[in-house]
Write a structure and sequence with these properties.
Blueprint: E1 2-7, H1 13-24, E2 29-35, E3 40-45, H2 51-60, E4 65-66, H3 69-77
Antiparallel strand pairs: 1-3, 1-4, 2-3
Length: about 80
Amino acid sequence: MKTTIGVKNVMVCGCNNSIHKGLGEVNGVFGVRVEPERDRIVVEHTDEVDRNALVARLREMGYDPVESEREEQIRLKNR
C-alpha cells in the first residue's frame, strides 16, 4: 500500500535522511521516497499502517504535513 503526504519546505539531504529514518521506525513501513520538488513524501507500507500514524510521526519529527486537494485524490486512488 502507498500513502502520499504533502510536506512543505523539505530539503534534499538532511530532511531526506531524517524522514527516512523516522518513518522507517514505524512498524510496517518498508519504503520511503521523499520528493522535495513535489513537496511530498510517498510511504510504502503494510495495510496495518494508518495514515494518521504517519502524519503523527512526521509532526513528532518537526514537520508539518499538509494535504492539498490533489494529494487527497492521490490518497483515495491508492487505497
